[in-house]
UniProtKB/TrEMBL annotation:
This is Pentatricopeptide repeat-containing protein, chloroplastic. Pfam families: PPR_3. PPR repeats lie at residues 131-165, 236-270, 271-305. Keywords: Repeat. The keyword Nuclease does not apply. The keyword Repeat applies. InterPro entries: PPR_rpt, TPR-like_helical_dom_sf.
């Protein structure tokens, strides 16, 4: 039966599945365990879509005795298929120990952290004993919901429940603190691992390195990276890129380059992200020559420039007065290669610089003002907008301020700006004399100088 079901296309209708199950349903009504075995095998073969349809059919079968085990397989199927709400609805039908882990996992993956805590608290009412897996899932849900303080409360409550936290529990709490930019707390938890005689793994160390980068702790990052071999852990590309980034945030470009150059010796091959972060380190250290050398060396390292590497090198060249024109040439090269294809996706009057670094965004504004608007608008600048966004989706350059860079560039060329923060950040321009940010920012100014 399992083989016949697996031949069905993905996400079949209930009628299609029912047609296949119809001959065997009478047997399943007498032997419900046979149905659970089929559902188990379907989940193992990554066909949660079929498991959900089988469960729906069994629920409608009058003579079939549905058990929490069947519902549990349905919960797990929904979780694997990212159907979080359906998983939780199924769980409520049969809230027993078999299904709690799947329901909590659904909450964690679906960022339903409040519901996760509610379910976790209800275990006492159902006379169920929480274990390490339940705690890890609940803490992970808090991480997804960016509620680091609740994650720590859960971790502390394990002692009261006489459950000794394991490495997975600590790692989940560390990750919650790291996501919440509480790097000091993440480091404190990391230091607890050896005291509790728990072995560290690369994932927990990388979480700590990420905390160091966010906390501008480049020295500690280097210490942790050098400690990994002593703990019999091999740093990976992520470990190195995070340490390179931590050094780069403090403009310690020498250390960033040393780390990059040492990677092959440690049998770790740098990837494009490592090079991009190193380029950013050079940019913050005003070492545009070295940044440009790394950028042009990407092909010899078997990498093609990406939007991340372009963002980093363009910011570096934009801040170096003597090579600003080179930066403009590289920006147009990036556009020719298909990067920044959404700049004008809302029309020529709207420049969208989401996912751009400050330097790349300024170069995009320069191109827009000098090459786009004069050809389509003449001197009429009414309701033209630069959409910068809040910057929350920018990962590699999260700490930068694209809006400020764009506003500064325009102000230096005769546009006076004021800002009123609202939900979306937009800079709009008219030819009116007073300048005003409205909504996300309206900006008014004089006529465009095409020699910008």
């Amino acid at each position: 039966m399992v083989d016949r079901l697996l031949e069905v296309k993905l996400h079949p209708s209930k009628d299609e599945v029912h047609l296949l199950l119809e001959p065997i349903l009478p047997h399943w009504c007498k032997a419900p365990n046979a149905a659970s075995q089929v559902m188990k095998q379907l989940n193992a073969r990554k066909r949660g879509d079929l498991t959900c349809e089988v469960l729906a059919i069994l629920r409608e079968e009058e003579n079939f005795k549905l058990s929490p085990i069947h519902v549990g397989y349905g919960v797990n199927a929904c979780v694997s298929s990212a159907l979080w709400r359906q998983a939780l609805l199924l769980f409520k039908e049969a809230p027993d120990g078999h299904n709690f882990s799947g329901a909590l996992k659904a909450c964690a993956k679906g960022t339903e952290w409040e519901l996760s805590l509610h379910l976790f608290a209800s275990m006492d009412e159902a006379s169920l004993q929480a274990n390490h897996i339940h705690y890890s899932s609940a803490i992970a849900a808090c991480e997804k919901g960016e509620r680091w303080e609740l994650a720590l409360q859960l971790l502390q409550s394990m002692d009261h429940a006489q459950i000794i936290p394991d490495r997975v529990n600590y790692s989940a709490a560390m990750s919650a603190c790291e996501k919440g930019s509480r790097w000091q707390l993440a480091l404190s938890i990391f230091e607890l691992l050896p005291r509790r005689s728990l072995e560290m793994d690369v994932t927990s160390v990388n979480t700590t390195l990420s905390s160091c980068m966010k906390g501008w702790q480049w020295k500690m990052s280097l210490e942790i990276l050098s400690y990994m071999p002593k703990a019999k852990l091999l740093p990976d590309k992520i470990s190195y890129s995070l340490s390179i980034g931590a050094c780069g945030k403090e403009a310690k470009w020498q250390h960033s380059l040393q780390l990059l150059e040492s990677m092959p010796e440690k049998e770790v091959i740098p990837d494009a992200i490592c090079y991009s972060v190193a380029i950013g380190s050079c940019a913050r250290g005003a070492e545009w020559q070295r940044a440009l050398k790394l950028f042009h060396g990407l092909p010899s390292a078997s990498f093609c420039p990406s939007i991340i590497t372009y963002n980093e090198v363009l910011t570096c060249l934009h801040t170096a007065e003597e090579v600003k024109e080179m930066g403009y040439v590289l920006f147009k090269q990036a556009m020719w290669q298909g990067f920044y294809s959404r700049l004008l996706h809302k029309g020529a009057r709207n420049l969208d610089v989401h996912e751009m670094s400050p330097g790349a965004a300024v170069l995009a504004v320069r191109w827009w003002l000098s090459e786009v608007l004069p050809t389509v608008l003449g001197k009429d600048l009414s309701l033209c907008r630069v959409i910068t966004g809040w910057g929350k989706s920018r990962k590699a350059w999260r700490d930068s301020d694209v809006k400020a860079a764009v506003a500064h560039f325009l102000s230096a060329r005769g546009f006076v700006t004021t800002s009123q923060e609202l939900q979306a950040v937009r800079v709009a321009m008219t030819r009116a004399t007073p300048v005003q940010f409205y909504g996300a920012g309206w900006l008014t100014g004089q006529s465009i100088d095409t020699s910008i």
